[in-house]
Amino acid sequence: MKIISVVGARPNFIKMYPLIKALRNTKHESLIVHTGQHYDSNMSDVFFKELYPDKPDYNLNVGSSSHGQQTGQILHGIEDVLNKEEPDIVIVPGDTNSTLGGALAATKQHIVVAHLEAGLRSYDKNMPEEINRILTDHCSNLLFCPSDSAVNNLEKEGITNGVYKVGDTMFELAKMLDNEINAVTLQIAIPDEFILTTIHRAENTTNKKLLQIIKEICKIKHDVIIPLHPRTRNKLVEIGVLAEIQKQVTIIEPLGFLEFSYLLKKARAVITDSGGVQKEAYWNRIPCITVRDTTEWIETIEMGGNILANPSEITGKVEYMLTKKIQYSENLYGFKDTSKRIIKILNNSV
């Protein structure tokens, strides 16, 4: 078969790597389409240098713009690729605009759509990612779920055909590259104890809310390290507080998967609004404080390894999570052979 994998943003590159690597060891023709949704070298190029053996077969270079314009450009660009390549299956991971654009382009041409990380729900439609998840699931033929709750979410929406619990490819990747992660040497000095922080979502980077979050983080009685997302950096520069914040916390450039995973494993706790980081924190047994009202990774909350916080609660909840006894289970997100499970299903799908 000819299989096209659509990636475009930092989490896509990470989630798809184990599966793309596994596909390259089959007789299938495997192509990568990079939409260019993330184009900064620290958010895109570093992952291809670090993880992927080759450059993507196509790069649409859509860049940043409004949700509608970006999704439309992705849809148009992928449609052109599909017309040329005529694949049997298109795989879309996660919940980005690249995910939705790829799914829509493929389903309109009656090509089998496989959604990696299907069934996740935060039940907050103010988040564009939630809209992307729902629409992608409802136009997919194969739905690869990381957990039981994801399967149950789809069943509630009447989706039962083509649904498979396969585990989480990010968990598979963490186990696959554990030795490489442990061998990382960072170019920065890190304190013996620190809190790792990542803030990047659109709802958290408005002027007022971002200031609230940053002021609260600066109150934490521990060293704080922030790999700063380009969107967040630009906003802090725009509102004129970056220089002052740098006196109180350690701000570094965004990191690749290996370096970030190494730093996460060394942290006492993590403050984040990222979906993937919540999971990474859990299976690395690092307490997580999620600066959001809801999360799609509800299992991490139920197991006690993660807690939601509004900006004014960050400091208190950091201290709470540092002293809380947490139950951790390696079985929460499944298997170390997720990609093999997926390929077996793909082999029987067309």
Describe this structure in words.
The chain has 350 residues and is of the alpha/beta class. The chain has two domains: 2-168 and 334-347, Rossmann fold, CATH 3.40.50; 181-323, Glycogen Phosphorylase B (Rossmann fold, 3-Layer(aba) Sandwich), CATH 3.40.50.2000. Helices cover 44% and strands 15% of the residues. The protein contains 16 helices and 13 strands. Strands 3-2-1-4-5-6-7 form a seven-stranded parallel sheet, sandwiched between helices. Strands 10-9-8-11-12-13 form a six-stranded parallel sheet, sandwiched between helices. Helix 1 (10-24) crosses helix 7 (169-176) and helix 3 (67-85) crosses helix 4. The longest helix is centred in the N-terminal third of the chain and has 19 residues, at 67-85. It is globular and about 55 Å long. The model has no long low-confidence stretch (mean pLDDT 92).
